[in-house]
Amino acid sequence: DAGVIQSPRHEVTEMGQEVTLRCKPISGHNSLFWYRQTMMRGLELLIYFNNNVPIDDSGMPEDRFSAKMPNASFSTLKIQPSEPRDSAVYFCASSPSRTERGETQYFGPGTRLLVL
Amino acid sequence: KNEVEQSPQNLTAQEGEFITINCSYSVGISALHWLQQHPGGGIVSLFMLSSGKKKHGRLIATINIQEKHSSLHITASHPRDSAVYICAVRSLNTPLVFGKGTRLSVIA
Q1: Which residues of chain B are modeled with pLDDT < 70?
Q2: What does the alpha-carbon distance between residue A99 and residue B91 come to, in Å, rounded to a whole number?
Q3: B69 touches chain A (CB under 8 A)
Q4: What is the SS3 assignment for A95?
Q5: What are phi and psi of B47, to 5 degrees?
Q6: What is the pLDDT of residue A111?
Q7: Which of A110, B4, B40, B81 has its CA 20 to 30 A from that of B67?
Q8: Which residues in chain A are closer than 8 Å to B86, comparing Cβ atoms?
């Protein structure tokens, strides 16, 4: 099993540019999560999907952030326009079933984003 | 919102020592996770528990629902255990809330 796949692994961009992060969850998993990790705030949940439907996006910082899951095998997190304070590691995770059961989540390797 | 506190924030141990990392939370939960983040950044799920105790190799996780407290123990610690250990909790109909993590360094 390839695990959760994220791309790119590293991204350096200038403020104002659009950034798109990609995630391929583990096949058969029904839930997908986007997290952000910074030194100051630690890990934070941004949004999660269940069966491709966004369930809770209350963690999305502001309108500059958007996430989509067009099908069960692909999700994107987009930042437009990017700002230096968006610099962080963005993790995608998937789990086999609905979050209410508290299933184990499997994390991708993360995308390290630096906005100059 | 659940408040998750971990202690200690940083821990340095000699190889072979028994290690305990603590996690307390403020609101009743349906599940608690212990995660390990390696120096390279990768995150691995160690345990998910809602009651009692779980053991995997040298790692033991316990939870006391009444006291809203969980501990992660490492027996016979080894330098390869050096990592950040993160506690995360879930209540019904809410996603995971994370602690700030405990940075463990095991010295040979």
Answers
A1: 93
A2: 10
A3: no
A4: strand
A5: -145, 150
A6: 96
A7: B81
A8: 42-43
